[in-house]
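Hey, quick one: can you model this chain's 3D structure?
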Amino acid sequence: MKKHVIIAIFLLLSFDLAINAQIKLNSSGYVKIGSTESATQALDVRGNVIIKGAPGYEGTSYQVIFDHNGPYGSKCLHPVTSNAGSIGTSSNAFMQMWTYSLYNLSDERYKENIRNIDNALDQILKLKGIRYNLKLENVADDSTLSEALLEKKKKDQKADRLGFIAQDVNKVIPEAVYYDDSADIYGIDYIKIIPVLVEAIKEQQAIIKSLQPGSSSDKLKSTAGSGSQENPASEDVPLLYQNFPNPFTESTRIEYYLPDDIGSAAIFIYDMSGLQLKSIPVSGTEYGNVTINGNELKAGMYMYTLIANGQVIDTKRMILTDQYVLSTK
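Sure thing. Here's the predicted structure for all 329 residues.
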């Protein structure tokens, strides 16, 4: 009698769970959670999902949610705490990632200590783009694939690629390089190179403009005294003066004028081929000057340009001569 009672109770409980259960296992071995509907996948969940960290990692930084908070009510996978978590690792990376859009959080309200990118063209000129192939041991390591699929994967992954060497980029633009010391692997954030490229193009365009016929650099001026004899107060615009003395051997002085509304400015030194040799940030308002020492350059003709608030103000030429040439009659 006791055995029959136990069986009856078990059957009643099973019937009740079948009606009200929120976890359901069908005959195919598929599990449904959050609904009495039959599962269509190995794990079929109705509703939001939260994945928490392993024991010892209980903080919100170790929690991920899959819910409906995406654009237009779409599915969204996100961490519970902002700026936490990652997809893939340096030693276990995904083979491909497809997306219609990719956004980096770049709101001005999230930033501080904002500064200009100086010497951008010089940095870009030091980078070396390469064409390369991945080593075989890094492109295909999956014993579950058939031989045919494995060979296809090897072929696809061994195709020519374009990029940089991370160790080389680290010497020029370290902000774009990440080093995972736990795996001793370098990676590049290629998006971070774009701002440097933009500023380099602007610098290059300034050089091109200065070399066009009719530009101020097209007129070589040699002055016997300081160029600051002019008075810009009536116009209140940035001005660049001819260096003095010119030609020079030991040193020369470049004077400039900056009105109050100038946020950033610099004087760039170029050789006659347009290669940037030096950049000298200048600040303050009204008159200022910088000194160029002859031992910093080789004898020859150079151009110098004042760029203020991202605009080319003026470009002039200066001549550096050897002491021997000046002293010889």
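One thing worth noting: The CA atoms of residues 144 and 253 lie 72 Å apart.
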